[in-house]
Amino acid sequence: MQTRPAADPDFQKMLRGFSLTTAKILYRMPDHPSLLQTFMWQFADIAPDYPRLMRFLDHWRREVDASIHSVEVMHKGLIAPHEIRMAREVGHLH
Fold first, then answer.
1. Which residue of 53, 62, 71, 83 lies most exposed, with the fewest beta carbons within 10 A?
2. Which CATH number fits domain 9-77: 1.10.10, 3.30.360, 3.10.20, 3.40.50?
3. What is the pTM of this model?
């Protein structure tokens, strides 16, 4: 019996609702409070709750000395389950 190769893990995540997410975080360091700095991060997350981003921001607030000024979130769903149709048989060519 042949086993089919498993689908790409990233593709499987997209089918579960993950989308490409970019977070732009403006923050201030304690030693230079008048200077805004930028941190950009791109990752896969689930909109609109963004659980991965929320865990990261909670970690930042607990562990990083820099204070967050603002967070801008952009996301783009690359694929959705309704965009895929499974075909059992395409046909035969003689």
1. 62
2. 3.10.20
3. 0.70
